[in-house]
Sequence to fold (434 residues):
Amino acid sequence: MIKNEATRGRPREFDVDAALETATQVFWRKGYEATTMSELVEAVGINRASLYAAFGDKEALFLAVLERYGKEYSQRPMAALTEIADPREAIETFLVRTAEHLADERLPRGCLFANSILESGGGSERISRNVANGVAGLEDAIYQVIQRGQREGHLGLDADCRALARFYVGVAQGMALIAKISADSSSIFDIARTSMAAWPTRAARGQGQPTLVGQSL
Amino acid sequence: MIKNEATRGRPREFDVDAALETATQVFWRKGYEATTMSELVEAVGINRASLYAAFGDKEALFLAVLERYGKEYSQRPMAALTEIADPREAIETFLVRTAEHLADERLPRGCLFANSILESGGGSERISRNVANGVAGLEDAIYQVIQRGQREGHLGLDADCRALARFYVGVAQGMALIAKISADSSSIFDIARTSMAAWPTRAARGQGQPTLVGQSL
DNA sequence: ACATTTATGGAACGCATTGTCAACAAATAA
DNA sequence: TTATTTGTTGACAATGCGTTCCATAAATGT
Fold:
């Protein structure tokens, strides 16, 4: 976390959060490796040493950017998973909001998390772990929704909740990747819409009658 | 293309294709930006100048690597789309082979094409176009299979072939992304298997495509 | 044999990049 | 005021990067 207040000494002349937002845009557009500190310095509009003093080195700055991105940009899609009672509708809304996020022309292309995943391997270990944790958190949130839906009878007991959760995470990531290369945003909406056809209805084709034994994972 | 034969002069002491394969591994593991020429020189085991003489600069080498990767590694999954008559089985096999490719522990993590998508924006324009063309080619190949299946009556006439093709491309990309971060390869097989549940049967359950708030095409 | 062509090895160049330093400025606490 | 703490500034060091050059080695054609 970046400290934002000091009781003694000269106060900061720039807004930390605004600087972080600007840095986010640059990293998002160009990627971690390809972004230079000089670019960041110029974009943020402060001195080089001030940037280092406030955030540490490039890796620390990027980690702060990732954290802020998670709170600022992925909140709206993720919220659908807890706001909406019906599990199918919750996930559909999550996907649509994700697509809207990816299609927003005011923002850089793709998803910063997904972009960072592709870079993992060449980059630092901490960055990879950070992003991997974010994705794992998403899978878990989706899994909770689906499992609750199964308990409440919206899904058949034969549905594989873990596989479904993994599938919708994969769909979201696929959309993010396509959004990076496709100028036409209709692709990602096609993907979101089509993926909902994989949703298991309770009366799945001819499986045995549900047992009362709680199973899963 | 790289010339491999010369009638006059001293013959090359290394195998061009083997060098390209080694370079592929390095780029694949570390990414284009993060890979240095020194690493490539060391990995290939030849001299710096020889590498430049044979392939040109870093970008040209990477383009050669991309071309070779397309032929060497994506051929087997793609071949399923033309080999197998039944459209559903063709796409399912394509996905499974893709998953097998991604799960192969002898190979670097992820898919080189998918990994390279990130470089679009930070990297060169030619690389972006190259990768985008590859993805567009995949979408088209899948589209052909689905459309043929529709003509031959395997799919209902109400199926949206374009959306389906985009969906399965997105699934493949999502799998490639998950393969980068998940140590457990069961995730990608879950994704491949679950995505086939979105396949439209001829006697689709009455309602046709699910409704989705907001936009489409 | 000689001239020509190409590959090799190692050093070197020019430049970009990350990160740091010491001096100066501006605030608070006493 | 004075001391202290902290932010700002511009320049600078240190390193690593992609790329090229040059002398040498090894093949072919005449």
